[in-house]
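This is your field. Have a critical look at both lines of this record:
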Amino acid sequence: MDLPKEYDIVVAFTEKIGELDYYDLKETYQLESRDIIGTFYEDDAPLLFELTETYPELHIISRMDNGEFRNCFVAGASSYRLGDGDANPELKLALPPEVKRAVTAKINQLCRAIKSE
């Protein structure tokens, strides 16, 4: 399956910050996210804050509408994830919108393939 070259950049960044997926969350923290890639939304913020207080190794990752990943909580982000890697709040990754769409489409395709197995 061909992936955009920017996918490698996204993978490296998410590995550095320790972005957790559904299976990591369920196995380690007995927590279920909204989907298999570990997504949470604004109305989940109280739960995310509670989790980061209970488990200091966790931090909140914000995914912005403009394709930017921020390694901290940003109110109004399009979605949120949890991470257990580098928690430096200054870390961020900005993707141009067309790259974000291509990477997101490929990730969604992979998720659908996993679900159908």
